[in-house]
Amino acid sequence: MTRTDRPTGTRTTPRCEVLISGASIAGPALAFWLNRYGYAVTVVEKAPTLRGGGYPVDVRGTAVDVVARMGILPRLRDAHIDLRRLTFLEGDGSEVASLHPHDVTGGAAGRDLEVRRGDLSDALYAAVRDDVEFMFGDSVDTLEQSGHGVDVTFRRGGRRTFDMVFGADGLHSSTRETLFGLEEQFHHYLGHCFAVFTMSNTFKLSHETVMWNAPGRAAALYAVGDDEVHAFLNFAHPEPPFDAFRDPEAQRELVASVFADAGWEVPGMLAALRDADDLFFDAVGQIRMPRWSSGRVALVGDAAYAPSFLTGQGTSLALVGAYMLAGSLAHRDHVTGFAAYEHGTREFVTMNQALVGKGGATLFPTTPQVLEERNNRLRELSALPSAGGRPADSAFTLPEFTPRT
Ligand SMILES: Cc1cc2nc3c(=O)[nH]c(=O)nc-3n(C[C@H](O)[C@H](O)[C@H](O)COP(=O)(O)OP(=O)(O)OC[C@H]3O[C@@H](n4cnc5c(N)ncnc54)[C@H](O)[C@@H]3O)c2cc1C
């Protein structure tokens, strides 16, 4: 069988057909690069449309090179939030220190973009939507590997066979569960849960974040400069609240009970939480796996190696991982390609996952003593000149991959 290729109309030999599950960050980025290397790509996303919302995300270091090579860097520079100030507050609402965000997150000017998660997802989608088939409002039902390919059935009906399948379906990946078994084996819970949602900016904040801390609890307002602020509530919780994960009402109740006696602006935040229609709630955790592929199926982004937002590197790892996975398959079959992907990417992933301890200790101290020590460090930091970026963000130079001829 031959197929007619859009948009040039040239006749080519059959292209490898691949399926990607998940259209957030890793999925569209992988689709972009696989399409560039000659694959016929289908993306299935369970949400009915591309999902907006979520806390702003960082694209840092090596990941900036990925988006530059995709041609979307100018658009992301336009969308850059340019946060100017990060202010920490005591439990009684008084100020601890006010710093430039890079002093806390380790970002470096020009190598650190902060954008709304939806803006990044939109930019990635816009870069591929004309060349790739998207199936919204559907998901993989069954997936069976045979010698010649992967037989997939879809929830909304239909059966197709692909040469390879990729799970870009996030921290709670069902591709991972089908392939490797229960999430508990790979999810390293870091002892916190968080809720983010938007609320009206009645605080007159602009391009800044204000964070309130009490031992084991944090509340933050992040103003990107418009009418809304991103509200963030984080709390220590001994076990992951499994009952709450699929139940937004249970999530609201849990958060409201944990913060019931909190001061500062928290009561207003809890009131807004009750009505928020874009609540994103999750446990803070990392996915650590000995292998990222099995047979003709591979995982990418949070599905394979979520580092948690405490590292600030989830989005950057998803972008770099997608680039490496596709590039590793540019001239190789799935066996050698998947091995090359792991070989080329694992060290970078491990180095970035290791940033987690630092992030947790800075943002969410759990005891009064550790909180006091943290606050003293912040006061000292505010008196020092700004430092540069973290080595782990840029610890990797992207290889060049060339398209098949
Ligand atoms: C709406 C939204 C809001 C977010 N907000 C935050 C936040 O505030 N803070 C934070 O730290 N991280 C947040 N994240 C996660 C963050 O985007 C990722 O940590 C990071 O960018 C890596 O991206 P990823 O593409 O690997 O995974 P994700 O961004 O998690 O994307 C996974 C995608 O797969 C889709 N999906 C899931 N299961 C299936 C399935 N069975 N079939 C088909 N599609 C499926 C999801 O709908 C989603 O679009 C959010 C993600 C989403 C989707």
Question: How would you describe what is shown here?
Answer:
- The protein has 405 residues and is of the alpha/beta class.
- It has a domain of 192 residues: 3-Layer(bba) Sandwich (FAD/NAD(P)-binding domain), CATH 3.50.50.
- The chain is built from 13 helices and 20 strands.
- Strands 7-6-15-16-17-14-18 form a seven-stranded mixed beta sheet, with helices on both faces. It has a six-stranded mixed beta sheet with strand order 9-4-3-13-20-19, sandwiched between helices. Strands 10-11-12 form a three-stranded antiparallel beta sheet, with no helix packed on it.
- Helix 1 runs parallel beside helix 10 and helix 10 packs antiparallel against helix 11.
- The longest helix has 20 residues.
- The two termini are 19 Å apart.
- The N terminus is likely disordered.
- The structure holds flavin-adenine dinucleotide.
- The site of flavin-adenine dinucleotide has 31 residues, from helix 1, strand 4 and helix 10.
- Flavin-adenine dinucleotide binds next to helix 1, strand 4 and helix 10.
- This is FAD-dependent monooxygenase.
Short description:
Helix content is 33%, strand content 26%. The protein is α/β, with parallel strands linked by helices and 405 residues long. The chain binds flavin-adenine dinucleotide.
Percent of residues in beta strands = 25-35%
Overall spatial form = globular
- Sheet/helix structural class: alpha/beta
The CATH fourth-level homologous superfamily of the domain at 3-52 and 118-186 and 287-359: FAD/NAD(P)-binding domain
How many helices? The count is: 13
Listed once per kind, the bound small molecules are: flavin-adenine dinucleotide
Mean pLDDT across every amino acid position: 90
| CATH class category of the domain at 3-52 and 118-186 and 287-359 | Alpha Beta
Major β-sheet, in short? 7 strands, mixed
- CATH architectural group of the domain at 3-52 and 118-186 and 287-359: 3-Layer(bba) Sandwich
Radius of gyration: 22 Å
Show unreliable segments: 1-11
The strands making up the biggest β-sheet line up spatially as 7-6-15-16-17-14-18
CATH topology of the domain at 3-52 and 118-186 and 287-359: FAD/NAD(P)-binding domain
State the distance separating the first and last CA atoms: 19 Å
- Percent range for helical residues? 25-40%
The count of DSSP E runs of length 2 or more, i.e. the number of strands, is 20
Region (Disordered): 384-405
Domain FAD-binding: 15-331
Protein name: FAD-dependent monooxygenase
GO molecular function: monooxygenase activity
